[in-house]
Amino acid sequence: MLGAGLGALAYRFLGAESGALQGFLKYGAKPAGDVFIGLLFMLVLPMLFSALALGVAQMQDLKALGRMGAVSLLYTAATSIVAVGIGMLAIELFQPGAGVSAAERTQLLELSSGAWQAPAAAPKTGVDLLVAIVPRNPLKAATDGDYLGWMFFSLMIGIGLCLVRTEASKRFEEALQGLFDVCMRLIQMVIALAPIGVFALLFGLTSTLGWGILEQIGKYMLVVTGALALHQFVVYGLAVKFLGGMSVRFFFRGSAEAMLTAFSTSSSNATLPTALRVAE
User: Which of 135, 140, 244, 272 could potentially form a cystine with 149 if both were Cys, beta carbons 3.0 to 4.6 Å apart?
Assistant: First the structure.
């Protein structure tokens, strides 16, 4: 909130067109926010690859992997359906964002361009999705932001490590463990910069659009936050309690860091490295 408050004061007393404010945004706040987001994105691919490949390889039982995959798929589908239902109900009841003009909406998209990426076109059928999951070139999938294809490649490497138990494959597995440990340490270093990165992101928002933009989209923020809170604390809380057999308070205390990263960056890809570290 400090970044949002100072940004609003700068907008109020200096004005959005102030040379001093524009200079600080151009050479200070925006680069700081972009670097913070970039560091998180930079670690997504190596973290994903090492974590998924190691997770599968260390199971050493493909039958258990199949059962776990089926349960995970069912759980993801069920919670996703509930999340979509909550979101649609909230939209129909409260009509969030109705007061935001087209110009303000465009400015918000421009400000969040470092963290927001347009989603790829959805596959038309289940068969199309299955074909799209398998990357012809894993490196191209990585550079194109095809995380589903990259995850499939990582899982296949893990399956290969389960099937091939040679000295060379064990050394490769050790190398993956080393890569994972390095990524975990780097994530800790990046998260230590979160106060600066979040400050820069919020300052850039309110100093450009003013505190009024927060008032205008306040209803939207409340509706989104309320729907997320309902899904998080009720749906996930019940799942953690009855399906996971874990203390709900312990779960949310442990995942607080990942949730903070998600809210400050508005990016699931940027949050993924932190989520994996927290889960570990």
Answer: 135
In terms of Cβ atoms closer than 10 Å to its own Cβ (0-12, 13-18, 19+), residue 206 is buried
Alpha carbons 130 and 233: distance in angstroms, whole number: 33
Phi first, then psi: give them for residue 156, nearest 5 degrees. Answer: -65, -40
Q: What is the secondary structure of 130-191 as a DSSP string? A: HHHHS-SSHHHHHHTT-HHHHHHHHHHHHHHHHH--SHHHHHHHHHHHHHHHHHHHHHHHHH
- pLDDT of 28 higher than 50: yes
Nearest to 112 by CA among 1, 205, 219, 222: 205
Amino acid at 53: A
Write out pLDDT tens, residues 143-201.
888 888 898 999 999 999 988 889 999 999 999 999 988 988 888 888 788 778 777 77
Short-list 265, 267, 111, CA closest to 193: 265
Q: What are the structure tokens assigned to 35, written together?
A: 């670097």
Residue 163: C-alpha distances to residues 149, 151, 156, 160, 174 (Å): 21, 19, 11, 5, 16
Question: Residue 264: pLDDT band by 50, 70, 90 thresholds?
Answer: low
40, 261 contact by CB (below 8 A): yes
pTM check: above 0.85:
no
Task: Compute the distance between CA of residue 96 and CA of residue 94 in angstroms, rounded to an integer.
Answer: 6
CB 115 within 8 Å of CB 265: yes
